[in-house]
Amino acid sequence: MQLFYQPELVNGIHHLDADESRHAIKVLRLKIGQGINLIDGGGTFYKATITNENHRKCEFEITEKREEAKRAGYRHIAIAPTKNLDRTEWFVEKAVEIGVDRISFILTKNSERKVLKTERLVKKAISAMKQSIKASLPVIDEMKSLKEFLKTNDNENKFIAYVDFDNPIELKSVVAESNLVLIGPEGDFTPDEVELAVESGFQNVSLGQSRLRTETAGIAAVHILNLFP
Predict the structure, then answer these.
(1) Superfamily of chain region 3-67
(2) pTM confidence score
(3) How many CB atoms lie within 10 A of CB 182?
């Protein structure tokens, strides 16, 4: 199914943006009267009929809409971006495909990437949402320091995935309805950061008996959270 994205549908905007219009008219060669499928990023699928085949502003008329089936649980990952931006983009893409509600980026003492522009990451998330036939776009937060982040979140179940092979508590055994998982940088969290997180109500959990790359740990956490019934 080919999906087009128009986040302003709820505000009465019934045309595609320039990029989506170009793809519909120039690439797919759609004509007036043909049907298209749309999403608004807020959880709704739409069926529509093209009324103006302008490749800069393709207009349409809504003929049907339906709400996306709601999933149980809330999945929030706070992760330190990798030095190699491609790996962070890969994480965002795959996390959205699997299913995530929010992605926050955190700056830690061992972070190698100090600056992160989220505009491209949002585009990756939109593409992944369309690819996986979803109608809800996850929240992508700007990066903030770990200390600042710990002060602002209020998730009910909070976990920090820290490399500790002696920790017998696995994430899969403690997930509940609303979950936030912290994932550290390539050099992991420092002991002080782990202590600060624990003081802020986070529980130290294991993702298994392998030492994982940052982006792999993030995907492992997303997958585990999606096992919640």
Answers:
(1) Hypothetical PUA domain-like; domain 1 (2.40.240.20)
(2) 0.92
(3) 30
What's residue 71's pLDDT? 83
Q: What secondary structure letter does DSSP report for 84?
A: S
Return the H-helix or E-strand segment holding 78: strand 74-79
Cα dihedral sign for 189, 191, 193, 197? positive
CATH fold for the domain made of 74-225: Alpha/beta knot (3.40.1280)
For the chain, the structural domain boundaries read: 3-67, 74-225
Locus of tokens 């045309």: 15
What tokens appear for 38 in the block?
């749309």
3-state DSSP of 20-40: HHHHHHHHCCCCCCCEEEEEC
Digit-coded pLDDT (tens) for 26-83: 999 999 999 999 999 999 999 999 999 999 999 999 999 999 998 888 999 999 999 9
